[in-house]
Amino acid sequence: MNMYANEDMMWQRLKDLQAEAENRRLQRSAAGTRSLVGLLAQRAWVLAGLATRRPPRRTWSEAANVQTRSRVA
Fold first, then answer.
1. Residue 73 lies in a domain
2. Distance between CA atoms of 45 and 33, rounded to whole angstroms?
3. How far apart are CA 52 and CA 44, in angstroms?
4. pLDDT digit string (tens) for 30-73?
5. 20 falls within a domain
6. What is the pTM of this model?
7. What's the Cα-to-Cα distance from 55 to each of 51, 58, 63, rounded to whole Å?
8. What does the alpha-carbon distance between residue 22 and residue 31 come to, in Å, rounded to a whole number?
9. Cβ-Cβ contacts under 8 Å for 2 (sequence gap 6 or more)
């Protein structure tokens, strides 16, 4: 039996644990990024809604009165 087999297995296990820890760290940062992107999208949606608001439209009777008024005052 190879006397270094256990040491090699422990070294491989250590590398696996480090890779797993790095993957979990990356997943946490990706989740934070997703929530940040969601927040920015929500704010952009609100701003787009504010930008598209218009003043109330005039009725046809108000438009007719504007045309008949005299501009001489």
1. no
2. 18
3. 12
4. 888 888 888 888 888 888 877 676 777 777 666 555 555 555 65
5. yes
6. 0.43
7. 12, 9, 15
8. 14
9. 8
